[in-house]
Each structure stands twice: as C-alpha cells, then as structure tokens.
Amino acid sequence: DAGVIQSPRHEVTEMGQEVTLRCKPISGHNSLFWYRQTMMRGLELLIYFNNNVPIDDSGMPEDRFSAKMPNASFSTLKIQPSEPRDSAVYFCASSLGGESPLHFGNGTRLTVT
Amino acid sequence: GESVGLHLPTLSVQEGDNSIINCAYSNSASDYFIWYKQESGKGPQFIIDIRSNMDKRQGQRVTVLLNKTVKHLSLQIAATQPGDSAVYFCAENSPGTASKLTFGTGTRLQVTL
C-alpha cells in the first residue's frame, strides 16, 4: 500500500514564480482533496474532486490558485504567481468518497521568498 | 507586527496512563466525525471515526465518545506510549457533503517517561 504520494516534499521559490504541486491518490479512491496547513489558520480545505470533477473550490484563496485532475491517478495544484504568504504545507488526501476517512500524503512544504 | 499562530493546547501524560483529548465541534447537523494523529513532518493519519447514530466506538487502545447534545467529541487513549506523542485533530463533515471535512485546531499530546 503506497499511500498518497506527493511531490516535491520541499519547494523553495522566489515570489512571482509558478509553483506546481503534484499528487497521486490511492488507487481505487474516487475523491481527492487539497488542504493547506499553516500555523495561523490550521488545516484548510482548498478544493476537492469526486471522480476527477471539481466539486467545491470555495476554499481556493484567489485566482492565482488552480487545481486539475486530468485522470483518476494524478492531480496538480498550481500557484501562479506565487507570493510569500502562500508559504505553507500543502497536503493532498484521497478517500473512497461518502462517509469514509481521508488518507493524507506527507505534504509539500512550500517556501516563497 | 509579529504574527501570532494558533495556540495549540498541550496535554502532558505519563507513559502508561490514559489520555483523554477533547474537541468541541461547531455544526449540530454534522453526522460524521474523525480523529487524526499528526506527527512532525508527516500528514494527518486516520485513527478512528464515528457516525452520529453512535455515541461510542472502540478501536485498538482508542475509544471515541460522541455527545451530540453538547456537540462534544473525545478521544481516549489507553496505556499511552511515547509513540503516541503527536498533535491530534478532530474533524467533522459538512452536512449534505459527506466528503468535506472541517478540522479543529488540534491538541498536542506529550508523553513523558
């Protein structure tokens, strides 16, 4: 059981650069979630997909953030342009959908200088 | 000015004692609740879940209690071990959207030898 796989584990970039975070959900899971964790705000849901379709993106901070899920085994979260306040740990999680637990990856720690 | 992060309540427990971690949830219509454990540098890890039609559920060394009257959730860990040291989060679903979880701010559990 490989679990949810995220890459990269760490990303350091300069303000204004594009950042792409990647996620491979657990095989067979049909729901995928992107969360952001900061000391100030804790764990916040950004967006989630069911069967590759975005269902709720109300947590996406602004238009600089976008997420895609081109197939059942891959999703990306893109920030363009990045800003220092985007610095956080970004988690991807997947689940079987409905009332089932989310399984999280180990996150991408993003630092924007 | 200096930014202030979330102040995580901390519970210190001696090894071998029982731990009780409490959580107040916000929405009386939530019907699915989960406890997660997060170790440093890792993603949240599923511990146990409970649905609103139950008031108690037991796992291996852990018990979750749900009191819907006062919107309170607790996690009991029996015979606490050093490996239990972590931050523990409760999460509730959004009514009508079983997949969408809102996380609490977390409690840090420190196990002393």
Summarize the model shown.
Chain A is an all-beta fold and 113 residues long. Chain A has strands at residues 5-7, 10-13, 19-24, 31-38, 42-50, 53-56, 65-71, 74-79, 88-95, 103-104, 108-112. Chain B has strands spanning 10-14, 19-24, 32-38, 45-51, 56-58, 62-67, 72-77, 86-94, 97-103, 107-112.
Bulk shape of chain A: globular
Any idea what the shape of chain B is?
globular
Rg of chain A over CA atoms, rounded to whole Å, is 13 Å
Q: Poorly predicted ranges of chain B (pLDDT <50, ≥5 residues)?
A: none
pLDDT < 50 runs, ≥5 residues of chain A? none
- Helix-residue proportion of chain A: under 10%
Total DSSP E strands of chain B: 10
Structural class of chain B: mainly beta
Number of strands of chain A: 11
Tell me, rounded to a whole number, the average pLDDT of chain A: 95
Share of residues in strands of chain A:
over 45%
Q: Mean pLDDT across all residues of chain B, rounded?
A: 90
Largest interface: A-B, 27 and 28 residues
Order of secondary-structure elements of chain B = EEEEEEEEEE
From the N-terminal CA to the C-terminal CA of chain B, the straight-line distance is 39 Å
End-to-end Cα distance of chain A:
36 Å
Number of H- or I-type helical stretches of chain B? 0
Kindly estimate the percentage of residues of chain B that lie in beta strands according to DSSP.
over 45%
Multimerization state: heterodimer
